[in-house]
From TrEMBL:
InterPro entries: Bact_HTH_transcr_reg (IPR050679), Chorismate_lyase_/UTRA_dom_sf (IPR028978), Tscrpt_reg_HTH_GntR (IPR000524), UTRA (IPR011663), WH-like_DNA-bd_sf (IPR036388), WH_DNA-bd_sf (IPR036390). Gene3D superfamilies: Chorismate lyase-like, Winged helix-like DNA-binding domain superfamily/Winged helix DNA-binding domain. This is GntR family transcriptional regulator. It comes from Lactiplantibacillus songbeiensis. Keywords: DNA-binding, Transcription, Transcription regulation. Residues 1-65 form the HTH gntR-type domain. The keyword Lipid metabolism does not apply.
Length: 235
């Protein structure tokens, strides 16, 4: 319940319904017809995504993470459906959607035996008709038994949450500057060896089970990455 409310709050922030600060807890309780404890859990989840600032005695204010002339990607927004770590309304061009058997590298990445089955999805993603990223992702078939073609062409994570109740509980993310290999350069119509910003993500669901690994090469110009950090000593 509180996750659905958190997703609704995120949407309200994105749609400009909540502009400067959140309504009070009492007002949100009336809005969603739930208990104070549920509202607090929902607010805390949105806060963890870096979308709110808590001001003692004044409530929660909406964080302004935009940068002038920059496209901001919120890498803290993982655990709320609709709060993906990317701009919204991305268009996908699927290059590959198949089942493979893990090689030594993927087996080590997932902590599984060699030749265990994985879904593989390679897709070019576009925003405002301009190349945003090249994404190669793998999903453990023992956890994710089926992925629809429709999901591959839109949002796989939303599909997994809706159908299987699988959502990202935590993730390990590694940013690096890497040079394009021949296949990447060909798909992106870029120069072989050219340097791009890349993100390697290992995504875990409940009980710390790894279900997805992805390698994303960002191509969109003037891109900025946003992280939210909370100082626990001040909480």
């Amino acid at each position: 319940m509180y996750r659905d409310i958190a997703a609704s709050i995120v949407k309200a922030i994105r749609d400009g319904i909540f502009v400067t600060k959140l309504p009070t807890e009492a007002q949100l309780m009336d809005r969603y017809n739930v208990s104070r404890n549920t509202i607090r859990k929902a607010i805390d989840l949105v806060y963890q995504q870096g979308l709110l600032r808590r001001v003692q005695g004044s409530g929660y204010f909406i964080s302004k993470i935009e940068l002038r002339h920059k496209t901001v990607v919120n890498l803290s927004a993982r655990s709320i459906q609709g709060g993906e770590n990317q701009p919204h309304n991305l268009e996908s061009k699927v290059v590959t959607f198949d089942t493979i058997k893990s090689d030594t590298a993927l087996a080590k990445q997932f902590g599984i035996p060699v030749e265990e089955e994985l879904y593989r999805v390679i897709r070019l993603r576009y925003w405002h008709h301009q190349l945003y990223s090249l994404e190669t992702s793998y999903y453990l078939k023992s956890v994710v038994r089926f992925i629809s073609v429709e999901a591959v062409n839109s949002s796989i994570f939303s599909f997994l949450e809706e159908v299987y109740g699988i959502r990202v509980a935590n993730s390990d993310d590694y940013l690096s500057l890497t040079n394009l290999n021949e296949e990447e350069a060909s798909l992106m119509q870029a120069d072989h060896g050219k340097t791009y910003l890349t993100l390697d993500s290992s995504n875990y669901y409940k009980n710390n089970g790894l279900f997805n690994f992805s390698h994303t090469v960002f191509a969109y110009p003037d891109l900025a990455l946003y992280f939210h950090t909370t100082n626990l000593a001040n909480n």
